[in-house]
Amino acid sequence: MALEIPDVVIDRLPVYTRALSLLEAEGRDVVNSQELGERLGVTPAQIRKDLSYFGRFGKQGRGYNVARLLQELRTILGLTREWPLVLVGIGQLGRAIVGYAGFMPQGFRIIEAFDADPNIIGSKLDGLTVKSIQSLPEVLRKRPAEMAIVAVPGGSAQGVIDLLVANGVKAILNYAPIAAHVPSHVRIKDIDPVLALQSMTFYIKGRDSGAK
Amino acid sequence: MALEIPDVVIDRLPVYTRALSLLEAEGRDVVNSQELGERLGVTPAQIRKDLSYFGRFGKQGRGYNVARLLQELRTILGLTREWPLVLVGIGQLGRAIVGYAGFMPQGFRIIEAFDADPNIIGSKLDGLTVKSIQSLPEVLRKRPAEMAIVAVPGGSAQGVIDLLVANGVKAILNYAPIAAHVPSHVRIKDIDPVLALQSMTFYIKGRDSGAK
DNA sequence: GCTACATTGTGCTCGCGCGCGCAATCACAG
DNA sequence: CTGTGATTGCGCGCGCGAGCACAATGTAGC
């Protein structure tokens, strides 16, 4: 039972959660792996296999109870509590992140915002006062957070990440365009729209660049 | 030669490109797979294998010429030209995307912005005039774009994506929190910070909920 | 309560991507 | 021009994740 669960499986669980929330909002009581798979573009077998890592949540002949499965997945992922976040980097991107309405409903609340620019420190946005990055250790000591969002320029990102890790942060959502190094007990996920665009061009570019 | 190249390989090439740009900016002439791998957190063998899909770019005993390899990768990915983009959805997120300074240096230029809200249509930002989503087919006919960014609410995202596909868009960067359906000739990449956060909580949550 | 049916849970196979290990190859020294 | 050392390019094996196929099991109808 204490089976090793592949990371890819964990990555899919939030996707299932999102789809189930939608189904619940539509008033659906049950759903089978077939329909869920069609909605998400994965095979039914994949969904059943993934869920079987954690238990038996379905009923043969009927499918899965939407509310029940949703609750189970939230428990597995640790989404039954609220997660405080700190945000570092209050440039244009950082401000958009603070204002993003999608975090709160899912239990992610930004409780502190930091920046290095004296012109930005002290300013208020959305009820938060931007604090100096210098004060981060002290602030985190008083009000710990295990998760952080990094939205600073590439050049200062590794330093910021080291600082966060040194102060107890265990999971980082990194918007900076670097491949950051973190200790193995720290989770990091990168979001870089440029990389996403640059890989798609490969598939849609015509055969103009002849050299082959 | 017309070997089947795995998608994961293509996804890594932009990462290599980014690292090589940095090395070039540092004034480095050559780099070996060992050092490149350490910087990026991948094995040297992986890098050499990935590159070998496309040719022989290194010199035994020395490594890779930074400028040469960078140029080769850009050619492979189709990054030697400029890519016009259209953006749909000019909410807070959309405005942040328009203002993001990271696209232009990489050759991605947002040439049109669309929204459905009459209060937003007609407003200007960063030299762009927001146009009605209704006018999208006509605008794209005059000024085609193969790539698009979708930053609309989840409820209207699939409709917007269908519209884009119907008007010639071949690659979509999707910020909406849905699993969109597209024809097989269309590439789509999703960016959803909430999903990223929700998968990381699994690893850092304490053993309060029994599952293991 | 019994039968027919639908759908799950899972053992198993297959394919693929990752990385090892080495021969091939290049730079450079003398 | 030959020898030495370093690094690439790549054949090969291994491990793992994806999906098939079927037995197990619950539902619904009568």
Structure explained in plain terms:
Chain A is globular. The first copy, chain A, has a seven-stranded mixed beta sheet with strand order 6-7-5-4-8-9-10. Chain A has a three-stranded antiparallel beta sheet with strand order 1-3-2. With 212 residues, the first copy, chain A, is α/β, with parallel strands linked by helices. In chain A, strand 6 and strand 7 form a beta hairpin. In chain A, helix 1 (7-25) packs antiparallel against helix 4 (66-77) and helix 2 packs across helix 3 (44-52). Helix content of chain A is 42%, strand content 19%.
Helix content of chain A: 40-55%
- In whole angstroms, how far apart are the ends of chain A? 51 Å
Chain pair with largest interface? A-B, 63 and 59 residues
The count of DSSP E runs of length 2 or more, i.e. the number of strands of chain A, is: 10
- Biggest sheet architecture of chain A: 7 strands, mixed
Query: In order across it, which strands form the biggest sheet of chain A?
Result: 6-7-5-4-8-9-10
What is the beta-strand fraction of chain A? 15-25%
Oligomer: homodimer
Order of helices and strands of chain A: HEHHEEHEHEEEHEHEEH
The average pLDDT of chain A is 95
